[in-house]
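ENCODED BACKBONE
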Amino acid sequence: MFLFKILRRIFTAIVLLVIIVPLYVAGHIWWTAHHPQIVASDAIVILGAAQDNGTPTPILAERIKQAELIYRQHLAPLIITVGGGQKGDMFTEAQASRNTLVADHISRRHVVELPVGKDTLTSTVAYVSYMKLHHLTKVIISTDSYHCYRAMAEARNLGLTVSCTSPVEGPGSLKATGIRYIFRETGAYLAYETVGRFGIHLSDQIKK
């Protein structure tokens, strides 16, 4: 009887943990998306998303537009574009972002292209390495609203001071996303913080 009570308590604790932890994370994802706090920094990073033969898809185009807005508000003097390409692509996500910035009259001297990264974590490792090499410590990430929490956590864990900015229009904005995006980000964050700690990397790349 005593053993049964112990097992029941353990089972109850596990069930509560399985429920409470994801809800806690989802709550933080929602809160971060709805309460952005942008801090003047050394650089803005545009996280990559799909491009079509050098033309940013709508989700990437809005990230670029938001980064331009922050740049023109003098909150950071440098924009870093990241993101590789898929097999057969003639352009990388970083190239598509950089070309758009230059076409929008952002000085080439103020844009750094890092054509690497197949997902959030590998892109983060790439730009954090570049920033540390150049003694830059503060970054504003331009990405989708519900993506901010995880993107910030990954950069913060690698030693940067981080804030995030998100499009107000387009497919990555709050008005265009909802519970499915939160669920996806909750799973991705928990995977990063659990199996990721053991060196197991589960890509969050979404194919075109």
